[in-house]
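Incident log, support desk, overnight shift.

02:14 A customer reports that sequence design results differ from what the structure should imply. Their input is reproduced verbatim below. On-call engineer (initials T.W.) acknowledged and began investigating.
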């Protein structure tokens, strides 16, 4: 049975709870991913922030006529104020099928992959699962 460790992304950009929302602007605008795990100084998962969370946090000031108001707002708001926590997680031994079921059941876009101490090992998205499912199957010898 195939495991998450085989398809997860291991090089994961992270942020901290104390980071300002302004620090995420460039990350999300330049990145091809939609989620950023939030970790503490030991690399333990604290939460996750998505592009949706980011824009939802900005919505109260988006119609402001003053760009400085928006800038001040995103500098003062911290990731901890808008991140999702707790987070559904898996470990690298979780079956891809079980991870896919979690993604579907809870309508989430990704699952952080953690070890037994909640240290971040990687991340797996619904796109990773779909890519795996669409791979041609290797013929097995009888």
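02:41 Re-run completed on a clean worker. Output:
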């Amino acid at each position: 049975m195939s495991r998450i460790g085989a398809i997860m992304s291991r090089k994961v950009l992270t942020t901290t709870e104390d980071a300002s929302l302004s620090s995420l602007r460039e990350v999300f605008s330049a990145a091809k991913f939609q989620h950023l795990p939030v970790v503490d100084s030991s690399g333990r998962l604290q939460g996750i922030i998505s592009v949706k969370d980011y824009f939802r946090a900005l919505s109260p000031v988006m119609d402001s006529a003053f760009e400085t108001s928006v800038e001040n707002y995103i500098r003062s708001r911290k990731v901890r104020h808008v991140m999702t926590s707790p987070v559904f997680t898996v470990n690298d031994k979780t079956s891809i099928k079980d991870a896919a079921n979690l993604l579907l059941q809870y309508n989430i876009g990704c699952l952080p992959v953690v070890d037994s101490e909640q240290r971040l090992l990687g991340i797996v998205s619904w796109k990773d699962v779909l890519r795996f499912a669409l791979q041609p199957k290797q013929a097995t010898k009888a």
